[in-house]
Write a structure and sequence with these properties.
Two copies of one chain form a homodimer. Chain A contains eleven helices and 17 strands. Chain A has helices at about 5-15, 20-35, 105-125, 140-150, 165-175, 185-190, 235-240, 250-255, 270-275, 295-310, 335, and strands at about 5, 45-50, 55-60, 65-75, 85-95, 100-105, 130-135, 155-160, 180-185, 195-200, 205-210, 220-225, 230-235, 245, 270, 290, 315-320. In chain A, a hairpin with a 5-residue loop joins strand 5 and strand 6 (about 100-105).
Chain lengths: ~350, ~350
Amino acid sequence: MPHLLDVAGMSRWIQRDGAENILTGMVHYLEDDLRRWQSFEKIPRIASHTRFGVIELMPITDSSLYSFKYVNGHPLNPARGLQTVTAFGMLADVDNGYPVFFSEMTLLTALRTAAQSALAARELARSDARVHALIGAGSQAEFQALAARAVLGLEELQVFDVDAAAVEKVRRNLEPLGFRVLLAESADEAVEGADMVTTCTADKARNAALHRDQVRPGMHLNAIGGDCPGKTELDPRILEHARVIVEFEPQTRNDGEIQQLPPDFEVTELWQVVSGEAAGRTSDEEITVFDSVGFALSDFSALRYAQDASAGSELLGWIDMIADPDDPKDLFSLVTSPAPAG
Amino acid sequence: MPHLLDVAGMSRWIQRDGAENILTGMVHYLEDDLRRWQSFEKIPRIASHTRFGVIELMPITDSSLYSFKYVNGHPLNPARGLQTVTAFGMLADVDNGYPVFFSEMTLLTALRTAAQSALAARELARSDARVHALIGAGSQAEFQALAARAVLGLEELQVFDVDAAAVEKVRRNLEPLGFRVLLAESADEAVEGADMVTTCTADKARNAALHRDQVRPGMHLNAIGGDCPGKTELDPRILEHARVIVEFEPQTRNDGEIQQLPPDFEVTELWQVVSGEAAGRTSDEEITVFDSVGFALSDFSALRYAQDASAGSELLGWIDMIADPDDPKDLFSLVTSPAPAG
């Protein structure tokens, strides 16, 4: 039977090892897989859009392991008490097609998105960066803050959200962990003096959480929330004057901030930077943008990491998802014999 | 939490209600959904091929319900004690993107494939059909036989497989259920006098389980096994002289028997026949072929049926796959508070 890491197991894992330790470890898995980018069969995710949100499948495979994630994005969900994003996923053995590991991925996606952002920021933010602005204080905010601290040492937060209660939630969650948290009353106040700005808003619309005149030379922008057609966060004039790094160009042209720009606008893929094929930040004045939409490879890495970290532990359960008759050609025997115990 | 119908639950359902009753009921669900074909957002499945097999995701959605299936096809698996095909799937609420029902789908796929075949045969086989030939006696064979009996009354089976033990297995499983089973020593012997021929072989190759000279006027061919590029079962000359019905033309052009024919070879989609937009069989002499590759809509129907049939029963369990903090914007609280009980 395949292993199952459910929500309770995932929560216990993060409590056991600590979110920052896990984020640091995850960066290694992300890097390892990005360095072998050419080993993967890659396709843009398969999305089904409605007026209220999107449902996506994100598969990827190398020659030995296959993964996919199911994930939704419904910006109106929090108003009715639900998560904007929920997700689960799976690893399967390519040789025989059998699933080997199922996992909740709502928490895991928050971790992997933050780890991926921190990895990009490590290559792109100024090495003397100190102040981290968060525009958007939803479910991802704390994970982004922790990853930026774990990887870049950023401990000063300046947080803005149109929902003041969400900003207060970030303060309540992060001050006890040693962050200095400024509750900003506007995006202007949040980005004042910031070296890195994470935009992480959820509206399914062409927004501009950040305007061109709020961006100063040397800033690194970590743009998380613009991630499907018609859903962007940045004033496009910011992008025109910045170095833009993406995950997987064919997908980001469709889903990312650069959907606002002509299709020949030059971008660099993150794996190129991580593997040394392309430069990271090239000057102290450069404005850099990680136009992150979330790509299947980082889910693959996150699932591998969760599988390795939970192996042999009480975090794991089993899921009875593989029909397994004694004679492989006698599937019908499962219907005629007494059913196996649940 | 979403419901879970696992392998044990699925087995108990089939034992509780009986495979033939379930197959008859499933035909109604398939028909209902085929009649509203235009309500669905349809795409060909997303396949990842290796030399040893294929792994596929099969999503589909209408305006209220989304489904997908994960399924593999690995013809060498039985030689190492594994199923050729394993599958699981899910239903989600389109409005909020939350999964509501997870199910094993190895058994469910066998049921839905057989029910879909029987539905097509009801429209395409001669009404005086009596003898059912099975070429290929693997995991699908008994389900195909039961569906053809439940829907068309075919109780005489003539079975051939290169693996004699598999043929004997079919006899052992089906004679006690009232079938008359001829163990054929060749495909020729199996199709002798048959009114309907089901081909259900697994090799990932251009095979010809059935040759043109084995096909007689009036026969209905139910071709199940040719279902991905390079994997076919029928002599293409059979198709050239037959009426060919498919599930979803864009997918079948790529995956089905008709991959052997020019792209303008005329086919009819099954929903057209079921809804009365196109004729079924038009003469006693016509040769009809259901070129079945398996389409996401029949999985959608099968999941709906399994969900309805198991609702409120002890067949169902739960799966802890949805992170659900009290404050929807405070996902991080799941990491700081004590973990919920598993």
